[in-house]
Amino acid sequence: MPTSLQDTTTLHNGVKMPWFGLGVFKVKEGSEVVEAVKAAIKHGYKSIDTAAIYQNEEGVGQAIRESGAAREDLFITSKVWNSDQGYESTLKAFDTSLNKLGLDYLDLYLIHWPGKNKYKETWKALEKLYKDGRVRAIGVSNFHIHHLEDLLSDCEIKPMVNQVEYHPHLTQEELRSFCQKEGIQLEAWSPLKQGQLLSEPTINEIAEKYQKSAAQIILRWDLQNKVVTIPKSIKEHRIIENSDIFDFELSSEDMEKISALNKNERVGSNPDEMSVGFED
């Protein structure tokens, strides 16, 4: 089990990925994202997760430069957006993201959503970027089991990561065991269900018992389930608090209580329905 913010999981290609990071979905470009990322790096975060569609890659890049952190100490993720799916357009989108970030390489590049019929072409582009050494690991986001099976049936390089909506109301048990079996690291976005889980009575009872916040209990549950997690926050005190989860362990009984809250309920789109507007 990870015992510090710097602890990593080893992806199936040997690359080490931090268990915990900062997500910047809906964090405004400019000073808001710059300050959030700088605060995270200052307090020991190594992993920052952005995406082309977030429109804040430039701010993330600025924060990285201003933080003074060595590039090789950081783990930077971005994602190709739906309208850029396809082989050539993905290669171009990657260049655009890299330029905005002001980096020479990415640590992880993901297909943001599966869509219907282009992700295999898109994946071929990711394989090329990987072989060319421009990205250290490649993966997908929001892929169900059937998308993964389809991709695995004829890809050359297996995805290293699948980043999905994952929290106590959406425990995705089948997907989690499928990914584990295939050696694909599961990663959680929206781990706190955009804050909706913070008032959940069961979680608050458990939080009281461990003298931790509801958010810390949920994030710890992620880690003990071997799921990488990237909560989003723009407040420095919250960025610090979110990462203060390495000094306690949830009992297996409490882990089960949290998992039992599952309702298969999403706060984001269902990947099978999120394909409007990007098939030709």
Please give a structural write-up:
This protein has about 280 residues and is an alpha/beta fold. It has one domain: TIM Barrel (Alpha-Beta Barrel), CATH 3.20.20. The protein contains ten helices and ten strands. It has helices at about 30-40, 55-65, 85-100, 120-130, 145-150, 175-180, 200-210, 215-225, 235-240, 250-260, and strands at about 10, 15-20, 20-25, 45-50, 75-80, 110, 140, 160-165, 185-190, 230. The protein has an eight-stranded parallel sheet with strand order 3-4-5-6-7-8-9-10. It has a two-stranded antiparallel ribbon with strand order 1-2. β5 (about 75-80), α3 (about 85-100) and β6 (about 110) form a beta-alpha-beta unit. α2 (about 55-65) packs across α3 (about 85-100) and α3 (about 85-100) packs across α4.
Question: Gist?
Answer:
The chain has 280 residues and is α/β, with parallel strands linked by helices.
Per CATH, the class reads Alpha Beta
CATH fold category name: TIM Barrel
**How much β-strand is present in the residues?**
5-15%
Number of strands: 10
Q: What does the overall shape look like?
A: globular
Indicate the low-confidence ranges by residue numbers.
Answer: none
Number of domains: 1
Number of helices: 10
Alpha carbon gap, first and last residue:
45 Å
Helicity range: 25-40%
Instruction: Give the spatial strand order of the biggest sheet.
Output: 3-4-5-6-7-8-9-10
Q: What do the pLDDT scores average to?
A: 94
Order of helix and strand elements from N to C terminus: EEEHEHEHEHEHEHEHHEHH
The rounded Rg comes to 18 Å
The major β-sheet equals: 8 strands, parallel
